[in-house]
Design brief:
Elements: H1 9-15, E1 41-45, H2 51-59, E2 64-68, H3 72-85, E3 90-91, E4 97-98, E5 104-105, E6 121-124, H4 128-134, E7 140-146, H5 164-173, E8 174-184, H6 187-199, E9 203-208, H7 224-230, E10 237-242
Helix pairs in contact: 1-3
Length: 246
């Protein structure tokens, strides 16, 4: 089901634009310049409404995170959720974003959030392959891909996030020892992913057909999609693969 278009969506993105990464020119060569701390970079492809990235970034604070989502109206939900979790205010009753000091940013106004308050997540409204294409070799420590579109129809294989085309880019941008972590509810996509990852230069590590009943359940952070489907009895599949150390 498509998300209903957000009212004042572009203005809401603009209000929190300090939390967004806009990839222009040489900034791609050192994304860490957009963060307060110089830490290893982790990438989430398809961050959805932000449950996962908000919880992960609070738990594993030793990373900087780039959360990619191609639909702006979905991304703004994630950015607002993250901002609330950091005590950066909330949406104002009559529109706009209200900062902790009470000032309201609306009608295209942007809050220049101090760098030390922005935390370790930046959001990007972009296509995943475009982002991967701009990232330098060996620049990412972890790539997360959660509950992506299975693209089951013939002719759409290259759009799957575990297709050979995507895996080739993951291998290029991952640092030696870097990890690729994938979760899905779709049986067909998981079987396909086991084959493609197994045939790639990545080394297959932990994988399970029932994550919530596995020994990884306690440390698993659920997405909003994952929570909804697991409550309906759908088993969640997960795999982890690693790029070889040089």
């Amino acid at each position: 089901m498509r998300m209903r278009k957000k009212r004042h969506g572009s203005e809401r993105v603009q209000a929190l634009s300090a939390l967004y990464f806009v990839g222009e020119g040489e900034i791609w060569s050192d994304i860490n310049k957009t963060f307060a701390e110089n830490q290893p970079l982790a990438l989430e492809i398809g961050c959805g409404k932000g449950d996962f990235i908000t919880a992960l970034s609070a738990r594993d604070r030793e990373y900087n995170y780039l959360a990619v989502e191609k639909i702006a109206d979905v991304s703004v939900c994630a950015a607002e959720k993250y901002a609330r979790s950091r005590g950066l205010g909330d949406m104002a009753p009559n529109g706009g974003w209200r900062a902790p000091d009470g000032e309201i940013y609306k009608d295209g106004a942007a809050w220049d959030i101090p760098m030390e308050m922005r935390g370790n997540v930046r959001f990007a409204v972009d296509d995943a392959m475009n982002v991967l294409g701009h990232l330098p070799d060996c620049s990412v420590a972890v790539i997360y891909a959660n509950f992506s579109d299975p693209w089951p129809k013939k002719g759409y294989e290259n759009r799957r996030l575990t297709s050979p085309a995507f895996l080739k880019e993951y291998i290029r941008v991952l640092a030696p020892g870097g990890r690729f972590v994938f979760k899905t509810d779709n049986d067909g996509l998981f079987e396909y992913s086991l084959e493609t990852v197994g045939a790639s230069a990545l080394t297959m590590g932990y994988h399970t057909f029932d994550l919530h009943s596995s020994d990884r359940a306690a440390s698993n952070i659920m997405t909003e999609y994952e929570r909804n489907f697991s409550e309906k009895g759908v088993k969640i599949k997960m795999l982890e693969a690693e790029k070889a150390e040089e």
